[in-house]
Description:
The protein is built from no helices and twelve strands. The chain is mostly beta strands. It has one domain (about 5-140). A seven-stranded antiparallel β-sheet has the order 1-10-9-11-12-8-2, with no helix packed on it. The radius of gyration is 14 Å and the shape is globular. The two termini are about 20 Å apart.
Amino acid sequence: MGEFTPTAANVVVTGGTIRRLTAGEAITAGQLVYQKAADSKAWLAQSDGTAEEATIAGIAINNAAAGQPVNYVAEGDVTMQSGIFTTPGTGQILVLGPTAGKFQLASDLDAANDDYVSIVGMSISANAMRLAINNTGLQRPAA
Length: 143
């Protein structure tokens, strides 16, 4: 199925506490971010980098250039564009993907890669997901 790319203008969060960091790079609403220990800034999370890069802080809810404030949430329901989850349907586990900032279905994890597994949440409708971040810190052994 591949990784999901939410349309930034359609990302709306229901519930959850809004937190803010300074962006370390350009970030778009709907992308997953982590907080880098070295500079305390928000950077795009990814599963095929370091353990730190795979430790999701939350999902960005606004666009930000490097040096600008980026708001994010780590819990709540996130509505995205219509039909983003139509094919997988509801009840699908979503995990951090190998492309910076993106997420994918857990069933699409590549057994050939030793990526870190960070759970983002679950699809709850054709256009929404429920955040339930679980940074396992575990790395899948490559097959």
